[in-house]
Amino acid sequence: MRTSTKSFAVAAVASLSLFTAACGSSDSEGESAPADESTSATPDESSTSADPAADLVGAGCADYAKAVPDGKGSVSGMSQDPVATAASNNPLLKTLVQAVSGQINPDVNLVDTLNGDEFTVFAPVDTAFDALFKELGDDGVKKVSEEKGGGTLSGILTYHVIPGQIAPADIDGTFKTVNGADLTVKGSGDEITVGEGNAKVICGGVKTANATVYLIDSVLMPPA
């Protein structure tokens, strides 16, 4: 992990509101629920008619496809669900899902929020969290998990989320995160880095029903 325990402590004061919106398909016939279908026609259209793998970038996309070739956690499977649900089906994102669903700190449960709007999400894979927890040590992890209000964890998680969906072709730049702090992304194709620690994009442009996801190899730390 590129970020030190000290950086984590310094970054501890932000707060949160994370991820994203649900959708469905559109059909005017009586057998389908018109309300559901009409409100989510556009997202569902893109996830069912367009190739979910068309805009993927990152040197790890082939490995991701091998690890999760089909099912709800695959590239095509994730495109059918809102981002919090889609992430919960991805075996590479188990710790992230625990973090946003109240399993690490019960005061940080973002699932409903995450399934409520469109976002770009930088999603640290499990090995990224493993490295962070190792660096923090048992005492550090305990402090974060038991912190009343969950401000530290909330601040970190929201720093991984940008309002609106950003495609790989437009991802190079500086963006305002849900945390409120700016996040800089550099590069294109298989060479995209994120944040001051230069976290690498493993596989990006992964579509969910309401978000564009970039799997990354490090946990990002918000600035002090």
Within CATH, the superfamily carries the name FAS1 domain
Question: Could you name the CATH class?
Answer: Mainly Beta
Multimeric state? single chain
Number of domains: 1
Largest sheet: 7 strands, mixed
Rg on CA atoms, Å: 17 Å
Q: Helix count?
A: 10
What class, by secondary structure content? alpha+beta
Distance between the termini: 18 Å
Q: What is the chain-wise order of helices and strands?
A: HHHHHHHHEHHEEEEEE
CATH architecture call: Roll
What's the total number of strands?
7
Strand fraction: 15-25%
Summarize model confidence as the mean pLDDT.
Answer: 83
Protein name: Fasciclin
Organism: Aeromicrobium chenweiae
GO molecular function, one term: cell adhesion molecule binding
Keywords: Signal
